[in-house]
From TrEMBL:
<dbReference type="GO" id="GO:0016020">
    <property type="term" value="C:membrane"/>
</dbReference>
<dbReference type="InterPro" id="IPR051706">
    <property type="entry name" value="Glycosyltransferase_domain"/>
</dbReference>
<dbReference type="Pfam" id="PF04488">
    <property type="entry name" value="Gly_transf_sug"/>
</dbReference>
<protein>
    <recommendedName>
        <fullName>HTH CENPB-type domain-containing protein</fullName>
    </recommendedName>
</protein>
<dbReference type="InterPro" id="IPR029044">
    <property type="entry name" value="Nucleotide-diphossugar_trans"/>
</dbReference>
<keyword id="KW-0808">Transferase</keyword>
<dbReference type="GO" id="GO:0000030">
    <property type="term" value="F:mannosyltransferase activity"/>
</dbReference>
<dbReference type="GO" id="GO:0051999">
    <property type="term" value="P:mannosyl-inositol phosphorylceramide biosynthetic process"/>
</dbReference>
<dbReference type="InterPro" id="IPR007577">
    <property type="entry name" value="GlycoTrfase_DXD_sugar-bd_CS"/>
</dbReference>
Length: 419
């Protein structure tokens, strides 16, 4: 049974109803909850909610629980600023359309500005994600990006099958018990049997990597992580290119990995069906796995490093039709939650590569957006930042249209609506 969450406001209404009708049984309260909120929580959940006291005023009644950060006064002032912005646009806070006030860097800067004025210390860039979680901003942010992606690129075939980098974790009851990939095989044995033993052994983030390569090989189209925000249509890119990838900001490699060449990120990739590059990536994953049995480092085994290694090893004939766009196309912004170690590297290092990278950070604090920018990646990386996250959600809560799961067979592909 899928977990059901009530918001703070819904919990308070349930408690008030229970106190106004003390003779009602838990089952009756559960039925009342379903009738009024369209949700059917477990009986034990209803009982626990009713036993708890009615919550006082909260900044965001749509949040799942009352949570207080280290600086509640600052968060209250910051949330009020967001509310004022929403009022100016005549929308709810969660419906702000691509407003800069909800960007990670803007919230981080506003928070520290408030703290500086009130002598309350400082917060790190990683605080922004916690703030958004506390105030219910994350799910609607992803829904907003997903709606915009469909509106912006209506003719695009989205082959986004596994959303491992989003704030919405997709899992059924069995998957919650086992975060490894033994419960379901994304690539059917009759199509890619040589990789099945890897898919069953690696963690789900690596399985998501392999699934996107297999889907792009089998059916083609565009794979895009759920934390992308599309800014202009991709139609011309698809028309003019057989297969395209993109590098992420060079400053990531220089300041975080001490490399002088940009990584090839696998968060957004597109190709025509049947391109041999994807099989080469999967073959290289298999060779590395069979030789080293490396299961923990997803970036190295199945992610960006493997993608870059495969591309750089190809001969000129093989990769002639592969285009690698510069970061301005899809990755104009850096991972703001990683800003502190990048700034520390700027203070510590004095080599030419670091100096140029730090100059770029100072010149483009909110990203290098150009006329070529088609989308921007918000670098949520919940698989690496929220390894202990125990809350799960469903794609149907993010997307307005029915969520379709690809069923790939030897004769073709069907899309099945998820219930």
């Amino acid at each position: 049974m899928n977990r059901v969450y009530l918001t703070v406001s819904e919990k308070n209404k349930l408690r008030q109803h229970a106190r106004a009708h003390p003779l009602l049984k838990t089952e009756q309260l559960r039925e009342w909850t379903q009738e009024h909120f369209g949700k059917l929580p477990a009986l034990t959940t209803v009982a626990a909610i009713v036993r708890a006291p009615i919550s006082g005023s909260v900044l965001n009644p749509d949040a799942k629980r009352v949570q207080k950060g280290k600086f509640p006064d600052m968060e209250a002032e910051l949330f009020q600023a967001i509310e004022r912005r929403a009022e100016e646009q005549g929308v709810r806070v969660q419906a702000l359309q691509n407003d800069p006030v909800l960007s990670d860097v803007s919230l981080w800067q506003m928070a520290n500005s408030i703290l500086e004025r009130t002598n309350g210390g400082t917060v790190k860039p990683s605080w922004v994600t916690k703030f958004k979680k506390r105030h219910g901003l994350l799910p609607d942010q992803l829904a907003r990006a997903a709606r915009q992606a469909r509106t912006t690129s209506p003719t695009t075939n989205f082959a986004s099958c596994a959303v491992s980098n989003s704030h919405i974790r997709v899992a059924d009851e069995e998957e919650m018990k086992d975060e490894h990939a033994g419960q379901e095989d994304t690539a059917p044995p009759q199509l890619y049997p040589q990789y099945l033993h890897i898919a069953r052994a690696v963690k789900k983030v690596s399985l998501a990597d392999m699934a996107r390569y297999a889907l792009l090989h089998r059916v083609g189209g565009l794979y895009v992580d759920a934390d992308f925000e599309c800014l202009q249509p991709f139609d011309a890119l698809h028309r003019d290119n057989e297969l395209f990838l993109s590098s992420e900001p060079l400053v990531h490699s220089v300041l975080l990995e001490k490399s002088n060449s940009a990584a090839l990120c696998n968060a957004l990739m597109a190709s025509a069906p049947g391109h041999p590059f994807w099989l080469q990536v999967l073959d290289n994953i298999k060779a590395k796995f069979d030789h080293e049995r490396l299961k923990s480092d997803a970036v190295e085994l199945t992610g960006p490093r493997m993608l870059k290694q495969t591309y750089e090893a190809l001969n000129s004939t093989f990769n002639a039709d592969i285009v690698v766009f510069p970061s301005e196309f899809f990755y104009p912004e850096v991972a703001y939650w990683n800003m502190e170690p990048m700034q520390e590297a700027c203070r510590r290092r004095h080599d030419e590569e670091a100096r140029e990278a730090c100059e770029w950070l100072n010149k483009f604090p909110k990203g290098e957006f150009t006329r070529n920018t088609h989308a921007t990646h918000h670098w949520q990386c919940t698989w690496c930042r929220d390894a202990q996250l125990d809350e799960f959600g469903h794609l149907r809560d993010v997307f307005e249209s029915p969520v379709m799961r690809p069923n790939i067979t030897a004769t073709g592909i069907d899309f099945i609506a998820l219930g």
